[in-house]
């Protein structure tokens, strides 16, 4: 089954286990810990998905839950991370000639 992740804005993206692994390692976990967490989360997501779709918020919560059991320090770092908000850029108005 092809697993999809529904982002907060409603768009769908293919599930990418490398994103989970990279995020876990950026939080301070080792490679083996990251693979452990990623494997557990992927297994959970396959069972939790409805019609092949799992929500990004639920996915993040599961990563945090599993990571805190594997490496509490990395779990705290992961929990405190928030993606920067990107504001849409308004095109500059061009003077009419």
Describe this structure in words.
54% of the residues lie in helices and 9% in strands. A hairpin with a 5-residue loop joins strand 1 and strand 2 (12-14). The chain has a single domain (4-80), classed as Ribonucleotide Reductase Protein R1, domain 1, CATH 1.10.40. The chain is extended. It has a three-stranded mixed β-sheet with strand order 2-1-3. The chain is mainly alpha-helical and 97 residues long.
Key structural traits:
single chain; 97 residues; 4 helices; 54% helix; mainly alpha; 3-stranded mixed beta sheet; Ribonucleotide Reductase Protein R1, domain 1
| Element-level helix/strand string | EEHHEHH
Q: Radius of gyration over alpha carbons? A: 17 Å
Number of strands: 3
Provide the β-strand percentage band. 5-15%
Order the strands across the largest sheet as they lie in space: 2-1-3
* Contiguous uncertain segments of 5+ residues: none
CATH class value: Mainly Alpha
The shape is: extended
Output the structural class.
mainly alpha
- Biggest pleated sheet: 3 strands, mixed
Q: Mean of residue pLDDT?
A: 89
Number of domains: 1
Q: Give the termini distance in whole angstroms.
A: 56 Å
Determine the CATH topology: Ribonucleotide Reductase Protein R1, domain 1
- Please estimate the helix content: 40-55%
Number of helices: 4
Please, what is the oligomeric state?
A: single chain
Question: Architecture, CATH level 2?
Answer: Orthogonal Bundle
């Amino acid at each position: 089954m092809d697993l999809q992740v529904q982002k907060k804005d409603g768009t769908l993206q293919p599930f990418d286990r490398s994103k989970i692994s990279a995020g876990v390692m950026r939080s301070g976990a080792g490679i083996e810990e990251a693979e452990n967490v990623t494997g557990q989360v992927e297994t959970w997501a396959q069972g939790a998905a409805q019609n092949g779709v799992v929500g990004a918020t639920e996915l993040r919560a599961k990563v945090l839950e599993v990571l805190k059991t594997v490496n509490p320090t990395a779990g705290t770092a992961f929990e405190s991370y928030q993606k920067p908000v990107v504001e849409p850029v308004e095109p500059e108005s061009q003077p009419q000639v």
